[in-house]
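Hi support team,

I submitted a single chain yesterday and got back a structure, but I'm not sure I'm reading the C-alpha cell output correctly. Could someone confirm the output below corresponds to the sequence I sent? I've pasted both exactly as they appear in my results page.

Thanks,
R.
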Amino acid sequence: MLLCAMKTVKDVFAEYRAQLKALYDSREADAIALTVLKEITGQSGAYVKAFPEHNLSVDQQEKAELILQELTTGKPLQYVLGHTEFYGLPFKVNPSVLIPRPETEELVEWVLNSDLPSGAINILDIGTGSGCIAISLKKTLPDAQVSAIDISAGALKTAKENAGLNQVEVSFIEGDVLNPNHTFNLLPFTFSLIISNPPYVTPADKQLMHTNVTDFEPHTALFVPQDDPLLFYKAIADLATAKLLKNGLLFLEINESYGIETVNMLKDKGFNKVELRNDMSGRDRIIKASL
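Hi R., thanks for writing in. Yes, this is the structure output for that exact sequence:
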C-alpha cells in the first residue's frame, strides 16, 4: 500500500483517519497521526496543529506511509515506533513487554504520595515487564534500593535497556512468583515496599478487548484462568507476608471486576489498612495494604 497522497500535515491526518477507521474512531486516529507527525518532524504537537498546510519532505512522507502500513495490521503505535513515555520518562517497548498504561502511572503516583516507611527504602517490583514502575520509582527516589523480578528473559532485557536509558540502577531478577520456593531463594532479603501490576485478564475479559492488545501484547503478562482470577495476587500476597518488613506497604494494580474479592483475600492473609481506590475513569483499579 503506497499512500502517495500524503503531502501536507492536513493530508496525513485525513489519510490516517481513512485508513484506520476500521480500528480506531476519528479522535483516536487523529491522536495517532499527531504522535507520528511529532515523531517524523521533530516538532511539538502545538506546532504540528498550528501549521496544517505545512508540506512534508519526501522522506517524512515515506516514513508516515510505512508507519501507517504497520498500523493497519492492528499493531500498536508504541510497538511500531519502538518507544513510549511513562511518568515523564522514555521507555523502549516491543512485543516482549506490555505497553505502559496511564492507570499504572496512577499506581506510581500513589506510592510517591504515600507516607513511606522510615529509614532506607528497599523496593521490589513483581512482574516488571518494561521496567516502567521500578525505573520511575528509582528515578524519583534515587536513594531507594530497587529490585525487579520477571519470568520473561526478553522482558528483562528490555527493562535493563530502559534502566540504562534513564540512567538508574535497578537489580533485575529472572524468576517466577508462582514458584515460591525458587523465588524465595532469589530474594534472600526483605523489603519496605512491594509493588506489582501482574497478569489479571480473564478469558471473559479477553472477548471485550481490542485486537491490538490481544494479538500483539505478551499473553504471559496479560492472562489468568477464568476459574482462578486472583492467581497472581494470592502468590504475591504470600510472598509479601514473608518478605515485607513491619509496617511495609504493598501496592497492586488490579482487575476492576475483582476489587472486593482482592481486598477480602488480602485481609484473609493478614493484611490490614487495605485501601481500594478508583482510577481516573472511576473503576476499582489500585490497592494499598500493609501488614
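A quick pointer for reading it: The first strand starts at residue 83 and ends at 86. Let us know if anything else looks off.

Best,
Support desk
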